[in-house]
Design brief:
Helix content: 10-25%
Oligomer: single chain
Number of strands: 37
Radius of gyration: 27 Å
Structural class: alpha+beta
CATH architecture of the largest domain: 3-Layer(aba) Sandwich
Largest sheet: 9 strands, antiparallel
Strand order of the largest sheet: 1-2-9-8-7-6-5-4-3
Distance between the termini: 46 Å
């Protein structure tokens, strides 16, 4: 009892502390937005329309954060509060996560980066940058959009908080990196990878340059204002490192001599006005100014031109080519979530070893494993004629992770630090392969354990490459597609189960899902196969561990597992036939559920028994068992339970397999009529 009371007291104390932090750092801003002179980044075309405004006490937040980097305090972490896109306040435990080599960090002690893990939301992971110009953040979420905080007012006292919603198609940006196949040896390593991290964190030295136009955008016209550029570099790299750490167990640090390749005059910098020449010009600059022995990967930022080019694929650590990556926006605003995530992380992904993953154009690299434009970082969401969505999601496709890790495994330049004492990769329970009928929904389920107690997430993705003819309009999902990608990638989820297609499509009685909101009409994103085919899937489990750059050093770890689903045209569709309309059934009455067996009892599907389940919330959950392991004979009479609802659905699912169907319309369970002797009929 004493332990319970102590725990209750501790939770109450923590809750009080949390609210005091909210008052200490943040307060909601209720002013009319027309009253503000806004930060120049607010002018970008991709700026969200829906956001919340908060006032920030920056000095108090800075004091709290800098206590972690004060070596005399011996504090390894601290707790801060941040507003979220819903307008409420959350707590995070925060660690130092410097993006600078030690000598550079000593030169710019007021420019810092931090990582954090959610306390209010255990699935949240924070990346935060701070400088005399204010803060920027990115919060990686699970089962909802990622969130960002950026300065809103010109004086950086008021901040906007918003969910990720980037419409890159408006910006006229394109990647001109010439695709190259991975060498055959690396392709073999890709197929045998079991995880992306293997108990280590890889650290690489980044030589980051910029042209005069970029420096001028941030107000720097001479080296006396170098801190403005360094703050911008740090803000972008903090967000980018959030992706590299989470998916790749990789962290990039700006080299000590970074300021030597920051330029302030567009007329005298070493970069011409022709973007296509920047790759060679950057490589020449880094070779002569920095020296090839003093960096592992080189990149350059511009402020206009609307393009990116990595210069090569997987050339990190290779002298003469490792320093040729460039990124420049189309809207003249080289900052913000679209610049950081859609552009920079994409181009650096090429340098690290990843090819494009879209299939609207097949580049013959073996990883065109996403339909149409693709939706992950190495896709082209928002800038093609087959856009599955208007912008990418903030993850690398499993094929990209595998490519990058296979490439980095051959390099000697990353510093690999063993972190198994502080964090180990999750362990995925063995998966099984299945044969299912055509045109029938199915679900894949995986589970994983994590020795460190991290909140793991699950991401099921198809692992089939498109053929050379599956391009353009033929690259979208289709029931008759016998090979290639047919299933969209979604952001990681807290659930290890993914339904195929998504639940909304199933409840509508459809076999095909259209594009996400804002995608191109006709760009189908999911399709149940009506023909025989093999579907290869990979489950990626992320532990989302927050990165720490000081002892105890730790970083996120991942694991892979594969499963094969074979679709057989000798059986199916397996489908519920009754109830399939808006009928009303009385509780306690005997009713007959029917379904189309369609040869699913025979080999190779071989489903002898099924479960029959009831939902009273429109098919979201099925908590009532109407019949368990009953023969798969197409009919079962059941007694309707006393679950009064107008949004009932029936699910018939295979036993020992993964396929199922749900009735196509809501039906009602109503109170039974009770006939009393010598009295009128009444409702019971």
């Amino acid at each position: 009892m004493r332990k319970v009371l102590l725990l209750t007291f501790a939770l109450a104390l923590f809750s009080t502390f949390g609210f005091s932090q909210a008052d200490k750092f943040w307060s909601a801003n209720k002013e009319s937005r027309s009253n503000f002179i806004t930060d120049k980044a607010v002018a970008r075309l991709s700026y969200p329309k829906d956001f919340k405004l908060f006032n920030l006490n920056i000095e108090t937040l800075k004091q709290t954060l800098f206590a972690v980097v004060d070596k005399s305090s011996l504090k390894q972490s601290t707790i801060i509060s941040l507003p979220n896109a819903a307008g409420s306040i959350e707590q995070f435990e925060v660690y130092e996560a410097s993006n600078f080599e030690p000598a550079l960090q000593a030169q710019f002690p007021q420019i810092r980066a931090f990582s954090g893990k959610g306390i209010t939301d255990k699935f949240a992971t924070l990346k935060l940058s701070i400088s005399p110009q204010g803060i920027q953040t990115m919060v990686f979420r699970t089962d909802k959009p990622n969130e960002f905080i950026e300065p809103y007012s010109q004086d950086h006292s008021v901040y906007s908080v918003y969910s990720s919603h980037r419409e890159t198609g408006k910006l006229g940006w394109s990647c001109s990196t010439v695709e190259q196949k991975m060498v055959s040896g690396l392709n073999a390593e890709v197929s045998s990878l079991t995880g992306s991290s293997n108990g280590t964190v890889k650290t690489m030295r980044l030589a980051q340059s910029c042209n005069g136009e970029y420096a001028n955008y941030f107000g720097a016209t001479s080296s006396a204002q170098v801190g403005l550029v360094m703050a911008a570099f740090n803000a972008t790299l903090t967000r980018c490192n959030g992706v590299y750490e989470k998916d790749l167990a990789l962290h990039l640090n700006l080299i000590a001599n970074t300021t030597a390749v920051i330029y302030y005059s567009p007329s005298t910098d070493p970069y011409s006005t022709t973007l296509s020449q920047w790759n060679a010009q950057l490589q020449s600059t880094l070779t002569s100014v920095i020296g090839e022995a003093n960096y592992d990967i080189g990149h350059m930022f511009g402020a206009s031109g609307g393009g990116g080019n990595a210069g090569c694929i997987g050339c990190v650590c290779v002298n003469g080519s490792k320093g040729s990556g460039i990124t420049s926006p189309a809207d003249g605003i080289p900052q913000g979530d679209n610049f950081d995530i859609d552009y920079v992380v994409h181009e650096v992904g090429h340098q690290l070893g990843a090819n494009h993953t879209f299939s609207m154009s097949n580049e013959g690299t073996g990883v065109n494993k996403e339909m149409g434009s693709g939706i992950t970082i190495m896709g082209y969401a928002g800038i093609t004629s087959q856009d599955v969505a208007p912008h990418s999601i903030d993850i690398y496709h499993q094929a990209s992770i595998a490519q990058i890790q296979a490439n980095l495994a051959t390099k000697t330049c990353p510093i690999s630090t063993n972190i198994t004492a502080n964090n180990v990769a999750p362990v995925i329970a063995a998966l099984s392969n299945y044969t299912i009928p055509i045109s029938t929904p199915f679900a894949l389920t995986g589970s994983a354990t994590d020795a460190n107690g991290d909140a793991v997430t699950y991401c099921w993705e198809q692992n089939d490459n498109a053929s050379s003819t599956q391009t353009g309009t033929s690259s979208v999902a289709s029931p008759t597609k016998a090979t290639g990608p047919n299933w969209l990638s979604f952001s990681p989820s807290a659930s290890g189960t993914r339904m195929f297609p998504k639940l909304a499509t199933i409840l509508s009685g459809l076999n095909v899902s259209g594009p996400l909101t804002g995608g191109d009409a006709g760009t189908n994103t999911e399709a149940l196969s009506s023909v025989s085919r093999t579907l290869n899937f990979r489950l990626t489990v992320r532990d989302n561990h927050a990165f720490s750059s000081v002892a105890p050093i730790a970083v996120a770890q991942t694991a892979f597992a594969d499963a094969v689903v074979t679709v057989s045209n000798t059986s199916g569709p397996f489908a519920v036939t009754v109830p399939n309309t808006a009928v009303s059934w009385a509780d306690g009455s005997a009713q007959t559920i029917t379904w189309s067996v369609n040869n699913t009892t025979a080999a190779p599907v071989s489903c002898a028994n099924v479960n029959i389940l009831l939902s009273t919330d429109g098919g979201v959950t099925f908590t009532t068992i109407l019949a368990a392991a009953t023969p798969n004979d197409g009919s079962e009479t059941i007694i309707i339970p006393s679950s009064i609802s107008s949004t009932c659905r029936v699910k018939v699912e295979s036993v020992g397999n993964i396929f199922f169907d749900i009735s196509n319309a809501n039906f009602s369970i109503v109170p039974a009529l009770i006939v009393l002797p010598n009295a009128e009929t009444t409702k019971g």
